[in-house]
Design goal:
alpha/beta, Alpha/beta hydrolase fold, 32% helix, 8-stranded mixed sheet, Rossmann fold, hydrolase, globular
């Protein structure tokens, strides 16, 4: 494994850690990469949803990376999105060196990190972001999105803390709605994998349902698994992250199978 941590050019306190397969393992073949954006309500970055997830994808044959993005007041002005798009752009710029398949970049996020992952698939042509990143076209649209119990809607079922950290507003108003993913989905949104639990008390399952409805409306390919029981923040659903839940733990293998089904298989 090649392990490297990179300070991003446009990052405030952000850092990108990459977990790359050794070139000798690759036989000169490029591999897909999974960018992981942990949760934490945009107030912190949850380590439980960082390296344990990266190692799981690495062991499944993927390159992996963890983005520890800017949080709290540093999350204002779309800063986490800027850092996520810069990470994707870095993968493309260093694709040959790191043996990354440029057309197989997925973003996997949990809770508020799920909102950030979904933002990369719905805000990649946002004019304000293009201006901040000095781009006039695609600023880093991923090829697939993986979402675990994601924050989606700024409306009735919002996780208010997440939207406050992004927008500075505690209300369901224009400032918060700007970041509402269900309002941003369109036919160009990448294929999406979603998992949630029906009784999640922190980010209600309606967030996933609203996203599914928007994806169906715009005919975006998706797969969704809603498990009947499970607390918020399950991550890998095992003892390593202190949330053992064998049933919900199936999400990971289901996700890898889904990635294979959309052409993201590791050769």
């Amino acid at each position: 494994m090649k392990l490297e941590t990179i300070k991003l050019e446009h990052g405030k306190k952000a850092a990108l850690t990459v977990y790359l397969h050794d070139i000798m393992e690759l036989s000169d073949k490029a591999r897909p990469i999974i960018l992981i954006t942990p949760g934490g309500g945009y107030g912190i970055v949850s380590e439980r949803e960082a390296e344990p997830v990266a190692i799981a994808f690495y062991n499944a044959g993927y390159h992996a990376a963890v983005l520890r993005y800017s949080c709290g007041e540093d999350a204002r002005d779309m800063q986490p999105m800027i850092e996520a798009f810069e990470s994707i752009r870095l993968f493309k710029e260093r694709a040959e060196e790191w043996r990354i398949a440029e057309d197989k970049i997925a973003v996997c996020g949990f809770s508020a990190g799920g909102h950030l992952a979904a933002s990369t698939g719905t805000m990649w042509n946002e004019p304000a972001l293009m201006e901040r990143l000095n781009r006039t076209r695609d600023i880093g649209k991923p090829n697939a999105i993986i979402l675990g119990y994601p924050v989606i809607s700024s409306g009735e079922f919002a996780h208010r803390g997440s939207f406050y950290n992004l927008s500075g507003s505690h209300e369901d108003d224009a400032a918060a709605e700007f970041f509402s993913i269900d309002k941003r989905v369109n036919s160009e949104t990448p294929p999406t994998f979603i998992w949630h639990t029906e009784d999640d008390p922190a980010v209600t399952v309606e967030n996933a349902l609203l996203l599914i409805s928007a994806l169906r409306k715009h005919q975006v390919p998706f797969e969704c698994h809603i498990f009947n029981k499970g607390q918020h923040g399950l991550s890998m659903c095992n003892t390593e992250v202190n949330t053992p839940n064998p049933h919900c733990a199936h999400w990971f293998n289901l996700c890898v199978e889904w990635l294979d089904s959309i052409g993201f298989g590791v050769e």
